[in-house]
Structure formats: structure tokens, C-alpha cells
Amino acid sequence: MEWLWTIVELFVVVALVLMTGLLAAIIFEAFRRRCNHTHEETHAIFEDPKSLKQVPCPCIFDPAEKYISLIIPAFNEEHRLPGAIDETMNYLQQRAAKDKSFSYEVVIVDDGSADGTTRIAFDFVRKYTIDNVRVILLGRNHGKGEAIRKGMLHSRGELLLMLDADGATKVNDLEKLENQMCAVYRKELQLGDTVHSDSSSRISDIPIAAFGSRAHLEEKALATRKWYRNFLMKGFHVVVLLTAGPGIRDSQCGFKMFTRAAARKLFTNIRLKRWCFDVELVYLCKRFGIPMIETSVNWSEIPGSKVNLLSIPNMLWELALMSVGYRSHMWKIRN
């Protein structure tokens, strides 16, 4: 029996060492990310593929120049991106033709793609001009959260919509989120807030967040999705409840809209760079008291998803970072 106890003791020692090492790594990484000032880096630039001139990136703190910005993160999306952009541009052009006051831009953030994504993105810039379509190159892969953060911080819209490159959600569903946000905006004005009640106030001045939701499709999704995606979905429901609290049933839908004021607060503070940044957005909205609206959207699963079993360890890692960072007050929230 001595050999059995020796094995048990060895197992316990190894487990303790691994747990201690993991905890130390989490604390170190959370400490490393305590200062989230990467948005204050040297101004990024857009390159106009027609003239080869460099166009300075706008900043989220600048006044809005467009009514809406659509931010699309793209990592190795040469096959799915063209269809999504074509559908998006068709909708935007048709709406602009009907409403002359409607202005827009599409910001494609290439998150270090190794395929033809960059070439395809610049083809759309040539087709629609750099005023309507812009490309931000991150150089190397940082993660979806970082790609969206970068796009948000360099957009010109009063409203800023993030949507996935696969076109899983129909772009015209943005009107559902937009209408809900406008309703909240009108309600805020009726409350007589002296800061926002003057005649020059615009929707971009009031922090509001709208989350597209697939919660109404959950029963059907459970029957058709792969088992590990169901596991991730259910797991995330529990995680969001524990980490960010109740309020949003589907935090992971890649279809979210923010006013410019909300984007300033959220995306200058967000620290998670990959799959769990959505959970951090919910948490930050609650910390700032930003109204959150959850609206059902049409959604269909598109082949080629980047979420797989290997995503689970990264998700757990980021959630641990978030928990340690905020609970220990290492991650300061800046107003």
C-alpha cells in the first residue's frame, strides 16, 4: 500500500504546483493588463488603394461624421467575407438612396489574416471608395475582441454596430436595435436630464447599448448544433450569470450596437482580447449604468466557425483574468 500512498502524494504535490503556477500566471497577466492605454498609441492610418495616400484614422473622441459605422472583424475570412460585405453594402446603399440624411461607413478589421482576406477587403475599398469602406490591418492575430475594439476606437458613426464576417445575422436587423435605442433616447429626453435635454442633443451623446439575441432560437439550436457548441452556450449562460450578473440572456451574439458615448466608455476600458470580451462588455455596461437592450435577431449558423473545442481553455483563461482583475481592483475603470 505504501506505493499507492506515494503515488497519491505525488499526484497531490503535482496538482498543487500546477494550481499555484496557474494562479501566479493569472495574477501576473491580470497585473500586466492593469493599464489599458493601448488606445492612446500613435494614430493609425488608412491607406487608400486607389491613390495610395494615407488617411488618418478618426478617434472615438472626435465628433461623429457618419450616422452609423459597421465594424466587421475578419480573420482568414476570404470565403465568407465577400458575401457578407455585398449584402451589407446593398442594404446600406438602398437605405441611403431612400433617406438622404443617412450616412454610413464599413470598417473591416483584418486581424492578422494569412489568406486572401486583406486583398478582398481592399477590393471593396476600391469599389466603394475609402469614405464608405475602410480597412484596418492589425498585422498579427490579436483576437476578435481586440479587432472590434480597434474598429470601434477608429470609427466615425453616431451609432456603432459590430457584426460578424460570416453574415450569420441579416444586416437589416440593425433597424431593430436602432429603433430600440431611439426609444430609449427619447425616454431619456423626456426625463428632463439637463445634460441631454437641449435641442442640440443627439443620440450619440447618450450611452446606450443594444444586444442582438438568439435566445429565442435556443430550442432549435440545441437540436441542430454540434454538442460542443451547445456545451459552450450553456456554459456561458452560467458564466455570464456568475461573472456579470443577470440581465442579458445571450451575451455572445456577434451583433451589437452602441451609441458613440457608450463606445467611448466601454472600448477604452475593455481588456479581454478574444472570445470573452462580450462578457466584459456586459460587466462594464452594468458598472457604468449604461442601459442594455436585448432584441431578437434573425440568425443562421454558417459553416466555418472559428469556435471549437480548443476555444474552451482560452475562454476559461480570459474569464479567470477578468474575475481576478476586477475583484482585486487591479483593473481600474476610467471615466
UniProtKB/TrEMBL annotation:
It holds the Pfam family Glycos_transf_2. Residues 69-182 form the Glycosyltransferase 2-like domain. GO terms for biological process: protein N-linked glycosylation. CDD domains: DPG_synthase. The chain crosses the membrane at residues 6-28. It catalyses: a di-trans,poly-cis-dolichyl phosphate + UDP-alpha-D-glucose = a di-trans,poly-cis-dolichyl beta-D-glucosyl phosphate + UDP. It comes from the Eukaryota. Pathway: Protein modification; protein glycosylation. It is found in: Endoplasmic reticulum membrane. Keywords: Endoplasmic reticulum, Glycosyltransferase, Membrane, Signal-anchor, Transferase, Transmembrane, Transmembrane helix. The keyword GTP-binding does not apply. PANTHER family: DOLICHYL-PHOSPHATE BETA-GLUCOSYLTRANSFERASE, GLYCOSYL TRANSFERASE. Belongs to the glycosyltransferase 2 family. This is dolichyl-phosphate beta-glucosyltransferase. It comes from Tetracentron sinense.
